[in-house]
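Dear support,

Our group has been running a series of protein-ligand predictions, and this particular one with flavin-adenine dinucleotide is the one our PI (initials K.S.) wants archived with full inputs and outputs. We had some confusion internally about which version of the output was final, so please treat the block below as the authoritative record. The input we submitted was:
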Amino acid sequence: MTDLAVIGAGPAGLAAALAAAARGVRVAIVDSATEAGGQFYRQPASGLRSRRPQALHHQWRTWERLRDGLAGSGARFAVQFLTEHHVWSVERDSDGFTVHALLGPEQRESVAVRADAVLLATGGYERVLPFPGWTLPGVVTAGGAQAMLKGGLVVPGRTAVVAGTGPLLLPVATGLAAAGVEVAALVEAAGPKDLVRHGRALVGKLPEGAGYAARLLRHRVRLLSRHTVVRAHGDDRLTGVTVAALDTRGRVRPGTERYLPCDTLAVGHGMLPHTDLAETLGCRLDGLTVAVDDEQRTDVPGVWAAGESTGIGGAALALAEGHIAGRSIAARLRGSEPDPAQWASAAKARTRLRKSAAALDAAYPPPAHWSDQVTDDTLVCRCEEVTAGAVREAVDELGAGDVRTVKLLTRAGMGWCQGRVCGPAVAGLAGCELTPSRRPFARPVPLGVLARQHDMATEKGTS
Ligand SMILES: Cc1cc2nc3c(=O)[nH]c(=O)nc-3n(C[C@H](O)[C@H](O)[C@H](O)COP(=O)(O)OP(=O)(O)OC[C@H]3O[C@@H](n4cnc5c(N)ncnc54)[C@H](O)[C@@H]3O)c2cc1C
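Confirmed final output from the archive:
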């Protein structure tokens, strides 16, 4: 039994764990990855013996502080770090919480971590909208390309187009170019006017933006703003993409199509928060994010949330929220009222960064008419091989009015990823709002594990 189980060893989870441990809390961090760092500070596997991992990172000093803290400096109790623990459920009972995790790459054995309190710091995942050819080998997500580079020290190809919308495309395009990939273009659906419209809230982001602009120039990466990829070409793998200009309403401007040869397309349309574990615990959601108060507490006693599960906002915001959560948890577990003055500077940063995150979110919406380009034979749900035509038929001819009914009629979202990849696309094609999907488990769980769980619960009389 530990005091606090932190799920997620990204910036939010690490900042919270260190803040809590420095105040005498016994912490176990649980993460599915083999190394700490999360997405932003993703580290190369130790077997790769990278000599200069910092070459692929920003804000390395901050990472060094987190890494050294995790190794033990500054805490009364060492933080226990459980790698390759894939959390599939968190249960609450009268004595606290049980975090259930599948072990290692096989994910066939489940272990339980008991704790008095839980911090959900599980981050977010990428939204990718389909277009003809998007399932060809050579098409990867923007974050996936970044993860290959940072975690595997490999590049996905020789000539790349980076496309979609959102600030993540900038580090991906410049990162690939710096690693020697010829980046033929950065194809961004938003235009300069979209950014100017939200200029006031983005003033603090100007130096970062200018830095990326300089790097794009240095690597001669062409920026095609207000453009989109309308088709990926190739027989058994990607050979090129057709891109086209968008009008101010997000429609493709006829006659503007052009072909760009490439062997890699890194594509992404923003990010969505992971909320599965919060939902299982019964935490209130605010739209698609976990709702938290000023201390980062959810409305379920003993459960805190920080970082991108509470809203997409970048690593600096995740750090600030984690720091606040860690201090709040330390005070509350001692039974005392925390003093917000103790985290005033983190709270100030949180307010500022949430404002710029909201402005970025508004400036980089997915192109409004993206579904116009999706032909009926385009696969939408890859796990269950459901096409856009089948989704449209479910809506237009069978009367489905929501994502759940589309799922029941077509099987879209019933496969391995449980709708994480296709959910936004199905909602868009069906003309429905994207709502959080209720999933009983955050990961696929072997039936044997569930059966053993049931047997143990029956023995304890809690089934
Ligand atoms: C693929 C990807 C690449 C990105 N690359 C960049 C980039 O290059 N530059 C940039 O500025 N921003 C990038 N971002 C955004 C960036 O991740 C965030 O701003 C920042 O890392 C958020 O921190 P966090 O602590 O909230 O979550 P994360 O850093 O995402 O950390 C969450 C952690 O939780 C773990 N986790 C999640 N679910 C479970 C579970 N069920 N069981 C066990 N562990 C779990 C994950 O393994 C991860 O280590 C990327 C995001 C993604 C999804």
